[in-house]
Amino acid sequence: MLKTNQFSVLGILGLPDSDRIQVITLSDLECDYLNATNCCDKLNKWVLVEAIAQCVLAVLLLLTGHWILFLMYAPVTAWLVYKLVNKPSGDIGMYDPTEIHNRQQLKTYMKENLIKMGSHLIFFFIFLYWMTISLLNLTKSAKAVEPMFPPVGLVTFELNAQKGQEQNRLLNNDMHV
């Protein structure tokens, strides 16, 4: 069964990727490779998926008692939920094609996505660290299992030690005679 840390790492793997796609799409719009309608359609598809993934990860952290990680992760999730809830009523999504070029919104969206991507990458490494720690603690608590075949270095060391003991025994026998 997967633990919360493993769920967190699996879940957070996709979030920087969705942010990367959003940044690339916004830069394509900035360079006029895409029109505003196509760009906003692509971006609005990712917003709900990202919000659900972040909320699920935050709830998992809360339910499993990882309070410090939850407190670190909650502001990013709360900010995204706030943006979704407080979008203007006439807009078709978080990104509206009629207003994306107004009042430097394109630059603002680009900065927001870069900040989200940076925070998701930081959380990815934090979750990966905690997963590694929990796996190390799991292996320490498990019983030590003898390997089926000892490592090569250990075999040669044991053989050399046995030869040395045999030579010492022969030398000691020769001295006593």
From TrEMBL:
GO BP term, example: vesicle-mediated transport
Claim: Repressor is one of the keywords in the record: no
GO cellular component: membrane
Membrane topology per record: Multi-pass membrane protein
Pfam families given in the database record: Cornichon
InterPro entries per the UniProt record, alphabetical: Cornichon
Cell compartments where the protein resides: Membrane
Keywords: Membrane, Transmembrane, Transmembrane helix
Segments traversing the membrane: 51-74, 117-138
Record keyword Transit peptide present: no
Family stated for the protein in its record: Belongs to the cornichon family.
Name of the protein this chain belongs to: CNIH
Lineage, opening ranks: Eukaryota, Metazoa, Spiralia, Lophotrochozoa, Mollusca
